[in-house]
Amino acid sequence: MLISMVEQIKALPPLPESFQKINAICSDENGTTQMLAKVIEKDPMLVASLLRLANSPLYGFSREIKSVLQAVSLFGMTTTRALVTGISVKKLLQMDTAPYGVTPEAFVETSNLQGMLMRQWYKKLDMPRQDLLFLCGLLQETGKILIAQQIVRSDEVTPFKAQVTTAHNLSEVERAFVGTTTALVTAAVFEHWGFDETMIQFIRYSDTPNNAPDLETKRFAASLHVAKTAVAINGPMNEQNITLALREVQRFELDEMAFAEAIEQLIEHVSY
Question: Where is the HDOD domain (predicted)?
């Protein structure tokens, strides 16, 4: 990884106090949705972002969600914690995703789709891992924010964007321009913030699952690789990328039927 990128990661400030409080409540067996909602309500951006997610077609709630408590109750504490983590990370990193040819809103939507794809895919296959995989999918593209900043500083937005637009393998484009990839940057960022080591490993090897140190890491790293292929930032869930993702499912001998069902369910909620 480039020295400048490493220094950029080391200079990142800690996640906000509200995130720490939310984490503590969700980890406490006596924590309640009411306690969680009260902390979230003190942060207007968290409130706006969480309600926007609650009312998006992706989560399929049958009525309009108007309050934080209502949203937290419907999401549940584990999902709320994951969503708040994603919101907090993206807020702290100050997104400028122009080098990838998308708006910050589209970037967030792509992240949410990857998270939901992982959840739907593994909800019957591996219930104990479902929530962690949702969080991995939700956050695995975080490194793109720092890579985009590097591209802007290097004044290479135009040539980078031109290659991203047509690339089937974004990690190759990233490596050519900045000497590293989203997966490696994301893993380094989460190490800096002290995130769960299992999650970090799944993300770190998502470009190179065959290099994973054990079979479980290989399996879930490969699944994350499939998710970001199907829901690629330069063509989320288009026919070509879904076909490419299915090939990767077969190559890594993952559950093809469960994946196809998960894709169908997402398409029912979101149209492009």
Answer: 12-209
